[in-house]
Design a protein that fits this description.
Blueprint: E1 4-11, E2 16-25, E3 28-38, H1 45-63, E4 67-71, H2 79-97, E5 103-106, H3 108-116, H4 123-134, H5 143-159, H6 171-177
Parallel strand pairs: 1-4, 4-5
Antiparallel strand pairs: 1-2, 2-3
């Protein structure tokens, strides 16, 4: 059985939101789109949130992703910045959930580690590895776009080549399937 699915990855931001969309057919990964939503000229935080919701909704309507992967806000010293970033993330998540698209969240360190093998990799290192993996020629002007793409690829790597999730009827069934995990 050949599996087809589309993953939308988002790197949330209140000034620039990066996104990347990949298509999977069997084990072949294809870059469908990547880019940024520029919000720095939008006046007021609530209008930026509205724009994030509308643009995320538009991407969902255009590409029909099966899953949304989004980067979790990182912990910083500026509480106001963290709150704004959390709101931006929440609005993108709400746009996906309002269209019944499942959402998966990954830490920045997990995203970098899954792409480069190093959780402290730079944006440039992540972008270069994605360029190698997906074979796109031109590097985007804003690396927030490749950050969004990295989240989508991270999700693909974390979930494996298939979207099938094992489900168990109880603890006994889980242990029977995974004897090494028992006590």
């Amino acid at each position: 059985m050949i599996e087809n699915r589309i993953i939308l990855g988002i790197d949330p931001g209140t000034n620039i939101m990066g996104y990347g969309i990949i298509g999977i057919t069997g084990k072949k990964i294809t870059l469908l789109s990547l880019g940024v939503l520029k919000l720095s000229k939008v006046e007021g935080h609530t209008l930026k949130l509205k724009n994030i919701f509308e643009q995320t909704s538009s991407l969902i309507e255009q590409y029909h992703p099966d899953e949304l992967a989004i980067e979790a806000p990182f912990y910083g010293k500026n509480v106001q910045s963290m709150l704004k970033l959390g709101r931006a993330q929440g609005v993108a998540i709400a746009a996906a959930l309002s269209r019944s698209v499942p959402v998966f969240e990954y830490s920045p360190k997990k995203v970098k580690q899954s792409i480069t093998g190093k959780g402290s990799a730079s944006k440039e290192q992540v972008a270069a590895m994605l360029q190698t993996l997906l074979g796109f020629k031109e590097m985007p002007k804003h690396l927030d776009a490749t950050d969004g793409l990295a989240v989508a690829m991270c999700h693909y790597f974390q979930r494996g080549a298939t979207a099938e999730k094992k489900s168990y009827t109880g603890w006994k069934a889980f242990i029977a399937e995974n004897p090494e995990r028992g006590i």
